[in-house]
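May I ask for a sample protein chain and its fold as tokens?
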Amino acid sequence: MPKTLPQPMPKPMPKLFPRHSPRFAALLADIAGQRIAVVGHARPDGDCIGSQIALARVLRARGHEAICVNGDPVPRRLQYLVGDTPFYLTDDTPAGRWAAIYVDCADHARGGEKARKRFPAPLAVIDHHLSNPGFTPCDIIDSTAAAACEILAGLLLDNTLVIDPGAARALYAGIVTDTGMFRFNTTTRRTFMLAAELVTRGASPGEAGYEIYERETPAKLRLLQCFLASLRYECGGRACIGLLPDGIFGQTGAETEDTEGLVDYARCIDGVDIGVLIEERPGAIKASFRAKNPAFRVDQIAAQFGGGGHACAAGLNLKDRTLADFRPRLVAALAAHLQAFPPSRPPAPIENPPHHPPETPGTPAPAPN
């Protein structure tokens, strides 16, 4: 009978976030017994909701009373993740003292003015925005990560904490959305390693793909039609700007969450280096920027108007500004910024078509019985 050779002991997995994981362990020790509000940003996306759910579930499993707090409701396409995780709008936060941990927030204001007043001294932030200056005693910020969910998944694994199926699904959804289904250049080997580990713990790529990307509403498509009709090239075709005018949501029946992903249509055109979505509101302007290459640093463009974000994805909000005032300043800022960088590809000959806004959509068809 052949001898059984001794098997080598498996090597322990190296720490995924060696600099941050000890701080996260210390944070968990420091907050023992406290009631925790996990605060996300206004108009939350998949990374925000995913990291909130996962952290709240882990804290609740450790005996905390933990809730999630947002200035806006959970988007329709992400509600499948919520389960029994308690979510509250900021105004509806239960009374009493709550220690706040912010996730996916580039600064204290990102959670909304009401949240800043309700939680004036947050204990920690877990975030991946390049522009985050740090605003808590425990800043766990890593701009090399593709998503806050990537950081949180790594912190949990590094500290051998239990990731239940609900947390795994939420973390996977956050990674999927912030990497554009693993297409964006923030995606790394570590991103795939963590995604694979989350699948072993209960995440389903098929479920995430269907719930997040295969459930568009007719109103979203009407909004997309209006956005595409508004696209205009600037800077010799290296920038493309689209507009959602004031009143468009009432005209199309769409919700503000339906703007998610629209700016990518401006960026994806061959020869365009930076895509922009401008959203006009009463007395205010919101703009989102997307770049094909991190070298273009759209966070620096946003910062000129008080905004921030990532090298390839950034945004801004301006009060008391009009489109007539903002758009020329934006085009000038884009032109000056792009002069410092060669184009990623030679722009094709570009000529803006005559602008014919789509007709106001009619009354949506009634739902079938």
